[in-house]
Design a protein that fits this description.
Elements (H helix, E strand, L loop, with lengths): L2 H21 L19 H16 L6 E5 L5 H10 L2 E6 L2 H13 L6 E5 L12 E7 L8 H11 E14 L8 H14 L7 H10 L3 E7 L1 H4 L2 H9 L2 H10 L1 H8 L1 H10 L2 E9 L2
Parallel strand pairs: 1-2, 1-4, 2-3, 4-5
Antiparallel strand pairs: 5-7, 6-7
Length: 280
């Protein structure tokens, strides 16, 4: 990953992670509110439910070794390791997140099962064919080379291993993105330190070209859309406002950018895509 982008992402998560942990906990991703988004539930539970729904849809079996690509503070890594009695290696660009994830694993007595590494997913520090499951929950949007990201995931998997991804996408084409849509996506990506996003069918095409088989995609936008209004409400609490001010401008900028996701979901330009595939 090029250094300026990497530094921006690292700084963003170094500064925003403590606030997120205090407000929302260790699962730094969307929640799942039923297929049509109508289920009312605790938002922390909704985040756990997203993991479980994705695993069920992905038909992952019982993996013994898991790599969590873009793991945040290791919320998914820990959940997966506990669920499958597996080893889980997470990768994040943020030393703050890695320290927190490893400390949490130790608190739970999982230090021999879960390791969070400060590492670039584009150049992973693992041998090829090391893992049964490659898990990527809302990290692909940060990758500056989507093809290389998929190639790295493919290489890390053992033959027969599964790749499971959830990511922010734009709507499928055709029709081609209009200039206004392109401008909106550029502003959103700048706000969240994303190089660019692509459609879920584009990911499927790239996955096929990189050697994956049994590729399936779905659009889960409706299921996760209630998440952002919930985040906005939590951000308006006195505790969160104080935390935002203390965290500084990068975190404040990220909070202000929530309007892009809400508007993007409402217009249909932004989608929440999931993909599953196999390394044959």
């Amino acid at each position: 990953m090029n250094n300026p982008l990497r530094n921006q992402i690292q700084q963003f998560y170094d500064t925003s992670t403590p606030l997120w942990l205090r407000t929302w906990g260790e699962h730094m991703h969307h929640g799942y509110y039923g297929a049509d988004g109508s289920e009312k539930k605790d938002h922390l539970q909704a985040q756990v439910d997203l993991i479980e729904e994705l695993l069920a849809w992905g038909e992952v079996g019982n993996p013994n070794s898991i790599v969590d690509i873009g793991c945040g503070v290791g919320g998914s890594s820990i959940h997966l390791a506990q669920k499958y009695s597996a080893t889980a290696d997470g990768m994040t660009l943020s030393p703050v997140q890695a320290e927190r994830g490893n400390a949490r694993a130790e608190e739970l007595g999982l230090q021999d099962k879960v390791k969070i590494h400060v590492a670039d997913a584009m150049q992973p520090p693992f041998e090829n064919s090391s893992f049964d499951l490659a898990w990527s929950c809302e990290s692909a949007e940060h990758m500056p080379d989507k093809r290389l990201f998929l190639r790295s995931a493919f290489n890390m998997l053992k033959p027969g291993g599964r790749f499971l991804m959830a990511t922010w996408c734009h709507r499928p084409e055709p029709p081609e993105l209009a200039p206004k849509e392109q401008a909106f996506l550029k502003d959103m990506c700048n706000a969240y330190h994303l190089p660019y996003i692509i459609s879920n069918p584009n990911y499927a095409e790239l996955a096929k070209e990189e050697g994956f088989t049994n590729i399936h995609i779905e659009d889960w936008t409706n299921a996760v859309a209630p998440f952002w209004p919930a985040v906005v409400r939590s951000a308006l609490s006195v505790k969160s406002v104080v935390g935002l001010i203390q965290a500084g401008w990068p975190t404040i900028r990220g909070a202000l950018a929530m309007r892009y996701m809400m508007r993007g979901y409402k217009t249909g330009l932004i989608r929440f895509g999931v993909l599953k595939a196999v390394k044959s």
